[in-house]
Amino acid sequence: MGSFVTSSDLESRQNQRSGPLLTPMSDEFTPETNTPELTEATAAPPVAKKKAAAGALSFKVSAKGAVSVYGLGRFPVTLYYEQWKRLLGSIEPLQAFLEENKSQLKSKEEA
Questions:
Q1: Kind of pairing, strands 77-79 and 58-61?
Q2: The pTM of the whole model exceeds 0.85
């Protein structure tokens, strides 16, 4: 008919659960050590690297062959070679435009 649970069954189940509990953010455990495994996606970025680069610009070539400028804001500015050449060739008109419209533009300090 039905099966009954004895006190020894309860004790053995309790002993099986004595390991670390899963949390919503860390549910990946290795069977050998029963400890959370950090991956590149979940690992926190090094703080020292961010502080060292604060205020400095850095340049990288993307996988698609574009040039990305990091350090201007939260996201990189990415343009292809021809776009960078075109932008750099328009430095004087861009500087003049910025000066003419300075009163309408917000700076980071004002925001």
A1: unpaired
A2: no
How far is residue 83 from each of residues 17, 69, 77, 78, 97, measured CA to CA in Å? 60, 13, 11, 9, 19
The total of structural domains in the chain comes to: 1
Return the bridge partners of 68, or none. Answer: 60, 78
Going along the chain, which residue ranges are E strands? 58-61, 67-70, 77-79
Domain membership flag for residue 31: no
* pLDDT tens, N- to C-terminus, the chain (111 residues): 566 766 666 666 655 655 555 555 555 555 555 555 555 555 555 654 555 456 799 999 999 999 999 999 999 999 999 999 999 999 999 999 999 999 999 987 765
Instruction: Name, in order, each residue with C-beta under 8 angstroms of 82's C-beta and a sequence gap of 6 or more.
Output: none
Domain assignment present for residue 82? The answer is yes
Q: How many C-beta atoms surround the C-beta of residue 20 within 10 A? A: 10
Domain span at residue 78?
55-103
Residue 81, in any domain of the structure: yes
- On whether residue 14 sits in a domain, the answer given is no
